[in-house]
Amino acid sequence: MNLVQRAAPSLPKLFGFAKRPFKSLRLPGEPLDSSSSLPPLFYGIHVFHCPDAVGIVAKLSDCIASKGGNILGASVFVPENKHVFYSRSEFIFDPLKWPRKEMDEDFHKLSLTYSAMRSVVRVPNLDPKYKIGVLVSKQDHCLVDLLHQWQEGRLPVDITCVISNHHRGPNTHVHRFLERHSIPYHYLNTTKDDKSEGEILELVQNTDFLVLARYMQVLSGDFLKSYGKDIINIHHGLLPSFKGGKPSKQAFDAGVKLIGATTHFVTQELDAGPIIEQMVARVSHRDNLQTFVQKSENLEKQCLTMAIKSYCIPFRRMVGAEADHEQYKCAHDADCRDKCKADHCKEKCLELPSKCSAGVCVCPFGPEHSAERVISSSKCASDSDCTNFCPTECNIKTCVEAKCSCGCHR
Question: Among this protein's residues, is 271 annotated catalytic?
Answer without folding.
Answer: yes
